[in-house]
C-alpha cells in the first residue's frame, strides 16, 4: 500500500511538471524578460506623500493616454509602493529622450487668456519675472520656449475638459500646412464656447489663448476674426488651431492636448535606459553563472551521496522544470518580468532546494547508524527532517513575503522568485524526494551496489577510524561549547573590525546613485579608449567631476564604459550621451537617472522590511522553538549582517538595491542554518537518555551531529552564489551581479560560522541558568570533587572514554555515539547464535 502511494505521488509531480512544460512549448511561450535583460526604458514618477489612491489611479490613466498617443505599444504602468508610478517600455522604444520629455510634462494643462506679451527686448521684461504659483485661479506670468513672457489671466479650462487633440495635414493649402484639431467633452465644450465668445469681443493680444503645460506656454493661438462676439466657437465640434505648424510641432501640441491633465504634479525619481546589447550581455552572464552553479552542485552531491546524489539530480531537474514553467506562466498571466535579480533569486533557490535534500539525507544517516533497515531509516529520517525543513524554509518564505510586500524596484522581483522557489521546494521534497528515496531503498541495486549504493554512502563504508569515515558518519568530538570564549573572542574581533570599517573616519559605506541620486551612463565599445581620454572629452562639455570606469568581459573581451555623475540638468545629460556616442561609435547609451527622494524611499522600505521581518521571526521562532533560541538566533543574525556590511565597506563596493536584496536574504538564510542546529538540540533535549546531561553536553553532541549537515548545506548554496560572483561578475563583466553576489557570499559564510560558533554557544549560556541544568551541573561538579578521593582508594577510572572540560565542569565523551549498521548486525548474529547454543544444551 505504501509503495503504491509513493508511486502515485511521484507520478503526480511528474504530471504537473510535464503539463507546465507541455503548455509552454505548445503555446510557444518564453519568459517575459525585464528591461535589464532585453533593454528598454523604465521611469519611476513620484507623487506628493499625501496623494490619495484614487488620484494616483487617475494619474496612471492619463499617463497611459500620453504613451499610447506617442505610438509606443503595450506600456506597463503600475503603482509602485505608496505614491510611485512605474512605467516600463520593453525592447526598442524609439526616441527615448523625446518620450521622457513627454512624461516629464506633469503639471496641469491649462487654457488662460493672454493679457499682455513681453518680449526679451522690452524694458519691462526683467521685472516681469515668472510666477512660481500653480494656482489656476490667479493671474500669473509664464514663458514660452522662445523666452517671450506672457501675463495670463486665471485658467478657464484644464486638460480634464479635453477629449482629444489631433495633428491634421491640410492637403488643400499651399505646401500642405499642418493644423491641430481640438475636441472637448460636453462640459468642456460649453466652457470653451463661453470663453472664446468673451475673447472674440477683445482686440490685440487679449484675443490670444495660452495653452500652458508644466508652467510653459506651449502655444498661444488667437481667436479668429470670423468668430462673433459673445457667440464663440461651438464646443460640440472640433476646433482648428492654425499657425503655420511644422509636422513635428503639430504632433507635439496634439500630444500635449491629448494627454490631458495630470491630477497631481509628479517628480521624476528614477530613469533607466538599457540598450538591447547590454541587456543580452546581462542575460548571458546570468545564465552561464546559473548553469555552472547547477553543475557544481550536481557534481558535489553525486560524489558525496552517490545514488542519493543521482536522486538529487532528478529532484533538481524536476524542480527547475516547474520553476521555468511557473516563470513563463506568471509572465503571461500577471505580467511578471524576469529580471537579473530574479535570476539571482532562482540561482540561490537551487542551493536552498539542495539544502532540503541534505537535511533529509543526513537525518537518514543517523537512523542507519542506529542499526535500522534502509527503508525504515528513509521513512523515520524524513519524518524528523520534514519538521526541520518546514521550520527553516518557512523563515525564508517569511523573508520573501515581507520583501515582496514592502520593497520597491528589483527587490520585489527577487523576493517573488525566492519565495516561489522555496515554497516549491517544500512541495517537491514531500511529494517527490521522499517517495523516490523510499522506492530506491527497496531496490537491491540502488541500495546495496558497491559503487553507487545508498548504504555505502550513508554508512561511510571506509576504514574504521579514518577521517573519511568520520566525515561521512559525523563522528566528531569537537568541544564547541567548552571553547566558547575563544569563539566569542573571534566573533567580537570580527564585529569590532566590521563596525570600524563602516565608520566614515575609517572607510565608510559607499552609496550608489539609488541612494544619493545622480546619473550613470553605460555604453559598450570596441575602440581603444582610455579613462583619461574620456575625462578630457567630458571636461570640454563642462563635466569635470565624473567617475569613469571600464569593465571587461574576460571571456569574450567585450568592453563597457561607465560614467557616473552627480544629478544634472536634462541638457547636460543629453550632452554627455551625445559625447559618449561620439567617443565609442555606439548608437545607444544606457543610462540611469535617480533622484535623492527615490533613494530615501528605498532606504525607508528596507528598514521597514527589516523591522517587520525581525518581529515576525522572533514571534515565529519563539512559538516553533522557544524564546531563548529566538534571542540567540537574533544576536547571531546581527553578527552576520554587521560582518557582511563591514566587508562590503572594506572592499569599497557601492551600496545598491541589490545590496539590500542580499542583506535581507542573508537574514532568512542565516536563520535557516541556525534553525537546523537548534532543532537538533531541541530533539536531543527531549530524549530521556539525556536527562542527566548538562545543556552544554547536549548542545555539544547536537552540534557535532549536524556539523557535516551544516557544512554541506552551506557549500551547496555557496557554489551557485560563488558562480555568480566569480564567473558572472568577475569573468563575464556583469557588474549588476557583483553587488548581490558579494553580499550573499560573505553573509552565507558568516551565517554558517555563527550558527555553530556563535548562536549555539550563546544559547548554552542562556540555558545553563535554568534550574534543571543548573542542578545537573552542580551534581557533576560535586562528583568531580570526589574523584580524587576515590582514585586514592584504588579506583582505576573509566575505561574506553576520553575526558574533557566544557561549561566549567569535567565532561565525558564516548569515541562514537553511532555504531555502524554492520556492527549492530554482527552483534545481533552473535546473540542469536548464543541463544541457539543455549537452547540446544
Q: What would the principal axes of the Cα set say about the shape?
A: elongated
> Low-confidence parts lasting 5 or more residues at pLDDT below 50?
793-826
Q: What would the average pLDDT be, to the nearest integer?
A: 78
Proportion of strand residues: 5-15%
The count of DSSP E runs of length 2 or more, i.e. the number of strands, is 20
The helix content, as a percent range, equals 55-70%
Number of helices: 25
**Which structural class fits the helix and strand makeup?**
alpha+beta
Output the radius of gyration.
35 Å
State the end-to-end distance.
44 Å
Main sheet makeup = 8 strands, antiparallel
Cross-sheet strand order for the largest sheet: 2-3-1-12-17-14-16-15
Supply the key terms.
20 strands, 841 residues, 5-stranded mixed beta barrel, 25 helices, 59% helix, 8-stranded antiparallel β-sheet, alpha+beta
Structural account:
The chain is 59% helix and 15% strand. A hairpin with a 6-residue loop joins strand 7 (162-170) and strand 8 (177-184). Helix 21 runs antiparallel to helix 22 (695-731). The chain has an eight-stranded antiparallel sheet with strand order 2-3-1-12-17-14-16-15, sandwiched between helices. The relative contact order is 0.10. The chain contains 25 helices and 20 strands. The longest helix has 37 residues, at 695-731. By secondary structure, it is α+β, with helices and mostly antiparallel strands. Residues 793-826 have low confidence and may be disordered.
Provide a quick synopsis of the model.
With 841 residues, the chain is an alpha+beta fold.
